[in-house]
Specification:
This protein is an alpha+beta fold and about 230 residues long. It is built from 3 helices and 13 strands.
Length: about 230
Amino acid sequence: MALSPARKAGVAAVMAAAIGAVSFGASAIAAPSAPAAAVPATHRAAAPATAQKAAKAATAHRQAPRVVTQLIGKGRVDGQRWSVTLEFHPTLPKGYTLPTRPDGSTVPGDALLCQRMYIGGVRIDHQGGPWSDCQAVTGAHDPAGNGSTGLWGLHDKGTTGTRLMVANPEAEVAYGVLRFSDGTRVRANTVAVPGTGYRAWAAPIADGKTIAVVDQFDAHGKRLSHDTYWR
């Protein structure tokens, strides 16, 4: 059917209006997404970076070396409190310097084992500084950390007055027994430091007591050592 020029103009106007309506409708639908697009991308990326940083800090905190402390023995002697504690540092602590041998070489070690001994609230050998009762060891199972026994006190290097005997025995030693010249005796059980190969037993010696014999036994009561040179 042919259209007159006037009708053609009318139809064109109607089509133009319809196209304009569709275009406006599309703009109206797209408008709500504009604010999200306007948010800077750096703001959205900051959250994961912060979370990763926090996770790394938490992991580092969990992995930080922890000092392991184990009470070996405690009690009263001559009216004074006494105690012995082993203290294992997995890494060399700040302020500690590995000692030097007479030949000029440095004593090996990447960890520290300390034997903290107290009589009457005073730490034995405190005059020597914070590391005077410590020895360098390599790791948590260094054989050099065991096998010694000693007398310790606040006077005359442990030879007089109230004293402590501390032994760092081999793994098979379950306890030690001190027998004195007056017939009395003291028994001390071996205690291990958790997670390490280090252990000790400790016994008090009252002022005026003289040691006659020091014996060490395994868990079945079999005597492993017998020493008579202690006084």
